[in-house]
Design a protein that fits this description.
By secondary structure, the protein is an alpha+beta fold. It has helices spanning 7-30, 35-41, 43-68, 72-93, 118-186, 192-209, 217-232, 260-269, 308-320; strands spanning 215-216, 239-247, 253-254, 277-286, 289-297, 325-331, 335-343. It is built from nine helices and seven strands. The chain has a five-stranded mixed sheet, covered by helices on one side. It has a two-stranded antiparallel ribbon with strand order 1-3.
Length: 347
């Protein structure tokens, strides 16, 4: 049931169940016994029993059952209350309202418990109903709360993991881009200052986006364009870069710094100063379905933390788009192909 109902709806449901039991079910069950006759002769007794039964119900719901779900000491308090309620109920039933007639064979009916009066049977029957019902509703409520807390803890854990992955990615981008800028200034490239401005703009985006869970797709696309332009400045004629972007709804929200991980991988492993190579990057979005692909030739250059960015990206995708994304990576040692499909309408 909790799978389909949120915490607030579940709380409202248990409230309706409490009202239905206290206002309808318990009074109807009591009327199955000759309560009107007892009330006429023993008004104080009927009122006392009614107050006690309602007290047992609410004490079970809000004290005994919750205590059973807590620590060891609290659990003993819950058990103690159950035992006390049994003892008090027993004492109530020992109050003699009248002396029962001896066992007889009148009308062919034999009373096996001739010493137990009708009012004692009624009190015990209603007590068992109250105990059973209150425990059932209390268990339902506590189970719902436990599941809700478990989901909250899982959400906090996932959020902490996402923040960790984002924190790991930011230095990764910064150091690689600084290295490219260093090369431009070292060689006296005329585009060095323009590249520095792009770098500052990119760092500003990294800083602002790191404080958000999602950003407009348009912002992420602009960042990818700036990144490709900045990286392309340090390339010679041996490398050709093809960037193709076709976005239908740029206002769609996506996690920041997610797709660019694969873009950076193209420039990290797909560039050679002496061999020709192609880098192809494509991003399209239509009707909320995002398709992102990259293609590059790979050159055997080992670097520290070579697979850190992609592994972090896989984990982020698993946390954010579980069941709503498809990531295919083909690496045969010569070419590296990535195809990522995300259904943004399902999130």
């Amino acid at each position: 049931m909790e799978k389909f109902l949120g915490p607030r709806k579940m709380k409202n449901l248990t409230l309706y169940i409490d009202i239905a039991f206290c206002v309808i079910l318990l009074p109807v069950m009591a009327l199955l016994f000759p309560v009107e006759r007892w009330f006429h002769y023993f008004q104080w007794y009927v009122i006392s029993v009614g107050v006690w039964l309602y007290a047992v119900y609410f004490m079970n719901r809000f004290v005994a059952v919750p205590a059973l779900f807590k620590g060891h000491k609290s659990r003993w308090w819950g058990i103690a209350f159950i035992l006390i309620s049994l003892i008090v109920t027993y004492l109530i039933t020992q109050i003699q309202l009248y002396v029962p007639k001896p066992n007889s064979l009148d009308n062919g009916i034999v009373r096996f418990f001739s010493s137990v009066t009708h009012h004692q049977q009624a009190v015990w029957a209603l007590f068992v109903i109250v105990e059973t019902y209150s425990f059932a509703v209390g268990l339902l409520t506590q189970t719902s709360e436990l599941r809700s807390r478990r989901r909250e803890l899982e959400a906090e854990r996932e959020k902490a993991e996402l923040e960790l992955y984002k924190a790991q990615i930011k230095p990764h981008f910064m150091f690689n881009t600084l290295n490219s800028l260093y090369g431009l200034f070292l060689t006296g490239n005329e585009m060095a200052l323009a590249s520095l401005e792009k770098f500052i703009s990119m760092m500003r985006y990294i800083h602002t986006s790191s404080m958000k869970d999602t950003v407009p797709l348009a912002d992420e696309v602009d960042y990818i364009r700036q990144f490709v332009e900045l990286q392309s400045l340090r390339l010679n004629e041996m490398t050709h870069v093809d960037l193709n972007i076709d976005v239908e709804d740029p206002s769609l929200m996506v996690p920041p710094m997610l797709l660019v991980t694969f873009v950076e991988n193209c420039f990290k492993h797909g560039v050679s100063p002496v061999e020709t190579s192609d880098i192809r990057i494509s991003l399209s979005e239509k009707s909320g379905k995002l398709i992102f692909t990259t293609y590059n030739k790979t050159f055997p250059v080992k670097r520290i933390g070579e697979h850190l960015g992609i592994e972090n990206c896989k984990k982020r995708l698993g946390l954010l788009y579980a069941g709503h994304h498809d990531l295919m990576i083909d690496d045969d040692g010569n070419f590296f192909n990535v195809k990522l499909i995300i259904d943004l309408t399902e999130i």
